């Protein structure tokens, strides 16, 4: 990739965990995201755990947008009746990054086979900021962060900011 068109952007990250059973002590996926951002010298400026509630998810995203230009939401992306992260966040996007979900499912297929089709991972841009919605399993978090988000976030934000 030609790095001449990737700007040195000050990346401030937000992490939102959607769960009715997790708290800060047992939020392994949220803590993994924070750890990976920190290891990559990206500041985590926002962190919150919210229940599977459209209002709570939307409020947390709006709060995170006030301080963060890269937000990772984990949890609530499956097919059960209470998995509403995608339905809540997609309408907030100015633009959808279709390739994120496609690439995530392709890479997940290598790990979990056809079960990857149950993932509704998605990403988009809101107010020139990136928002990623990923499954809440720690394996999914590591895959999304290490193989897609961390390698591409500067590139994404460079283009989103134009």
UniProtKB/TrEMBL annotation:
Please name the GO terms of the biological process aspect recorded for this protein, alphabetically: Mo-molybdopterin cofactor biosynthetic process
Organism's domain of life? Archaea
Q: A Gene Ontology CC term for this entry?
A: cytosol
Q: Which SUPFAM superfamilies match?
A: Molybdenum cofactor biosynthesis proteins (SSF53218)
SMART domains assigned to the protein according to its UniProt record, in alphabetical order: MoCF_biosynth
* Family (UniProt): Belongs to the MoaB/Mog family.
- Protein name per UniProt: MogA/MoaB family molybdenum cofactor biosynthesis protein
Q: Please give the organism.
A: Methanomicrobium antiquum
């Amino acid at each position: 990739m030609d790095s001449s068109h990737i700007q040195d952007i000050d990346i401030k990250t937000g992490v939102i965990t959607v769960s009715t059973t997790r708290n800060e002590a047992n939020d392994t996926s949220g803590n993994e995201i924070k750890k990976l951002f920190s290891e990559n010298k990206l500041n985590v400026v926002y962190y919150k755990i919210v229940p599977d509630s459209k209002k709570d998810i939307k409020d947390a995203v709006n709060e995170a947008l006030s301080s963060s230009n890269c937000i990772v939401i984990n949890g609530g992306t499956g097919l059960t009746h209470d998995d509403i992260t995608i339905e809540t966040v997609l309408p907030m996007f100015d633009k959808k990054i279709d390739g994120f979900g496609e690439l995530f499912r392709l890479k997940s297929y290598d790990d979990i086979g056809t079960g990857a089709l149950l993932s509704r991972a998605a990403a988009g841009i809101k107010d020139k900021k990136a928002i990623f919605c990923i499954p809440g399993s720690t394996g999914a978090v590591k895959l999304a962060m290490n193989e897609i988000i961390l390698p591409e976030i500067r590139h994404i934000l460079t283009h989103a900011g134009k």
